[in-house]
Amino acid sequence: MNFLEQRILRDGIVKEGNVLKVDSFLNHQMDIALLEEIGQEFHRRFADKKITKVLTIESSGIAIAYPVAKAFGVPLVFAKKAKSINIDGEVYAADVTSFTYQTNNQVIVSKKFLSADDHVLIIDDFLANGYALQGLISLVEAADATVEGLGIAIEKGFQEGGMRMRNLGYRLESLAIVDSMNARTGEIVFRAQD
Amino acid sequence: MNFLEQRILRDGIVKEGNVLKVDSFLNHQMDIALLEEIGQEFHRRFADKKITKVLTIESSGIAIAYPVAKAFGVPLVFAKKAKSINIDGEVYAADVTSFTYQTNNQVIVSKKFLSADDHVLIIDDFLANGYALQGLISLVEAADATVEGLGIAIEKGFQEGGMRMRNLGYRLESLAIVDSMNARTGEIVFRAQD
User: Fold this and answer.
1) pTM of the model
2) CB-based contact A24 B113, cutoff 8 Å
3) Whether the Cβ atoms of residue B76 and residue B69 lie closer than 8 Å to each other
4) A180 CB burial (10 A radius; 0-12, 13-18, 19+)
5) Do B28 and A80 count as a contact with CB atoms less than 8 A apart?
6) How far separated are the first and last CA of chain A, in Å rounded?
């Protein structure tokens, strides 16, 4: 069991509806020492890749992507969430449909900060159905840049996002994959990884 | 002229309406080496304070607050922006009124992450009219915690927020104070600081 899985077992809270609360250390209050370790771990896992940019999405992705960008010595870019707006030609935009919330939002990034020369590592805190991640991939592809990999802190292995990304051929590294949770007992089962 | 003022002169862009765009290095694409230097500088300026938490507000504050929290060795907490919502008793909430946009929003933080024992350094990227900062101060005071200081990357010295915070007795450190900008010539005038 790795350092993040251990921390989730210690401080994560399972709520009804397959909700895993990690807000005491990962996405509301943040333990910087843990985030630094996450940054080092993603750097180790993607050490074979020539990364030029780290891309994430506001808000909770930013603090996870920061130490990754630092470890690679490259700029950090965060995509912004927007209600469907008039795009002025200066941004790349991708639709992010949420079936859960029946909303249709966009993620946008300035064209200045992604180019065809970029080799991008995409980082986010959670992967569940994968809509946000698909939006980030679309932004990179709109810029004719290369998606070198996807780095996720916690993947909900019982939702389809991770499987879909792997089937599409993306190199996806999830530090913790939750295969099941039980809100009554608090039990969390992680998928065995190498 | 300090390192941030130099960077603003080099890469900042003045737009009509007293807009200073720093999105190539500070709040959309982010230069991690610059942010690390900002973290060290705030640590130096508030070295006399016993800080237990760094508080900021999503989204662009997070990447600036990260290296500050790291330098102090304390957790980073970010307040969330919310439309006026039913508060469930588990969060502190403060109104943030924007006269400019004629909107009434809230900032919220979980009660779990601010307590009366906390000595809080509040960090944000910009200070203009000070409404967001006032909201963050209200959250800290709602928790009976202590505001030890306010650290701002760029203060718009021609708007009233900075003066109001200083008049209220808060220790405010702004790394760059812009006293005037000219969108036609691109000129930026900084206030002389010690």
Assistant:
1) 0.96
2) yes
3) yes
4) middle
5) yes
6) 10
Kindly report, residue by residue over B135-167, the tens digit of the pLDDT.
999 999 999 999 999 999 999 999 999 999 999
Q: Determine the distance in angstroms separating the CA of B112 from the nearest CA of chain A, rounded to an integer.
A: 8
- Residue B78 reports pLDDT greater than 70: yes
Tens of pLDDT, residue by residue over A9-39, are 999 999 999 999 999 999 999 999 999 999 9
Does the beta-carbon distance from A112 to B36 stay under 8 Å? no
- Other residues' Cβ atoms within 10 Å of the Cβ of residue B187: 11
Per-residue pLDDT band for B82 (boundaries 50, 70, 90) equals confident
Give the integer Cα–Cα distance in Å for A56 and A64: 9
Of A31, A75, A110, the CB nearest to B31: A75
Residue A27 φ then ψ, to 5°: -140, 25
Angle at A96 between CA A118 and CA A26, to 5 degrees: 75
Give the burial class of B67: count Cβ atoms within 10 A of its Cβ; 0-12 exposed, 13-18 middle, 19 or more buried.
buried
Query: What stretches of chain A show up as alpha helix (H) in DSSP?
Result: 3-11, 32-45, 62-72, 131-142, 161-167
